[in-house]
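User: Last request for today: this protein with copper (II) ion, please.
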Amino acid sequence: MKLNGFLAAATLALAAQPAAAAPVSVSDAWARATMPGQKVSAAYMQIRADAPARLLSATSPVAPRVEVHEMKMDGGVMRMRQLQTIDLPAGKTVSLEPGGLHIMLMNLPKPIAAGDVIPLALVIESGGEQQTVEVRAEARAPGKGPMHGH
Ligand SMILES: [Cu+2]
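Assistant: Here's the final one, the structure of the complex with copper (II) ion:
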């Protein structure tokens, strides 16, 4: 099964991390369940790194394409753009939340239902070292908070 393969790979990646990698903690991870026919969703979380770090990318077994996005008001219009990285200043909690930074799950082959657990692997760089942080985001019902305009 695809999911097991992913988890095994993520576990191996974690086990291979050098002890020197900056501790990164992720909390309150959740993803939005999809509406019928919707092929995109977004995941949100709080990320805190103990040393200056950057979120470089993310992957998930539920989505063939995962991007790091930001929504921002621009002249009264809400716009979204893809980011190359998200800065994680040392000791500061960075919020990925509706209407702001988010992890975009794209080209979803299957719907996401409320209660599903979405595994995510975050690739985080700190001091020239890369580490993979495994996150499990629980899907919540759509319709809460601002929807995403794709
Ligand atoms: Cu987006």
